[in-house]
Amino acid sequence: MPVYILGIESSCDDTSASVLMDNVVLSNVIANQQVHKDFGGVVPELASRAHQQNIIPVIDKALKSANISKSQLSAIAFTRGPGLLGSLLVGTSFAKSFSLGLNIPLIEVNHLKAHILAHFVVQPGKEKKLPEFPFLCLTVSGGHTQIVIVKSYNEMQIIGQTMDDAAGEAFDKSAKILGLEYPGGPLIDKYAKEGNPDAFTFAKTNVPGLDFSFSGLKTSILYFLRDKLKEDPMFMQNNMTDLCASIQSAIVNTLMIKLKLASKQTGITEVAIAGGVSANSGLRKAVSDMQESAGWKVHIPEFQFTTDNAAMIAVAGYYKFL
Ligand code: KG4
Ligand code: ZN
Predict the structure, then answer these.
(1) pTM of this prediction?
(2) pLDDT tens digit sequence for 267-284
(3) With contact defined as beta carbons under 8 Å apart, do 117 and 319 qualify?
(4) Best of 109, 141, 281 to mutate for ligand 1, by most ligand atoms within 8 A of CB?
(5) Distance between Cα 237 and ligand 2 center (Å)
């Protein structure tokens, strides 16, 4: 008999629900919150309130589009953390009540592990090569930057992480300096496509080993622009695409240096990327290129499974359920 899992994600600013039949996704509904755009970042209180408004319609839609009745569900998986407390509480409270009401198991899921396990979500009728254990995963999101050895669905070892800002934060904070709205990562990606990545050089902080640091980059951009704007008040507007391409290149290069080092140190050449920043076209290309140049077996997630989504929570729940 197939297992039907309802996944619920509410850790930050996306309310999402998904139904999986085993590891096949039947629905993956995401309600984005627009209320944060003017604030340059997620406002926790506004996020909690928006989750409360969205959660029932989103779950209702996920069940309907999966063509599943709630009595068919085998278990409910929800994001336990990490994330914003108020946001998590909305998903957690709903998941708890729903599982009690239906008398089915409630499965807690770690958000970062779920980003990685998103690689095991299969779409109906679509062929997919799943990663083989052990593999390396570069998890890059708005809150985290980690290199992880994924030994099994449940066993993961963090071998490198950021000492300060996450990669997504580096994108978003740089974008804020450039006057772009939140989240700035996708906008930098968009403008970078038209720009020259070698136009400007920004200082990078070198951290030994497999750890990362991105706070120096932000300061470097800030001082660089302060000086340039003194000479030409229109400098930013006139150089937006080159600035974005150079910033993206700095972040992607930093990530790639550490990822290559991790592969060298562990001897693992099966490599995946995950999390919101894995949607970045520069990073996707840099990792894909390693297939040719270094013989890596590379796993690039589909766009819909890069940023926060409940299908990844449901699939993580599915393997825990088994
Ligand atoms: O995984 P995610 O949706 O949420 C967290 O768990 O944090 O990641 C969100 C982050 C944001 O910082 C956003 O700017 C970044 O992912 N992001 C991107 C792109 N798409 C999303 N960064 C660079 N290029 C993109 N195309
Ligand atoms: Zn995330």
Answers:
(1) 0.95
(2) 999 999 999 999 999 999
(3) yes
(4) 141
(5) 31
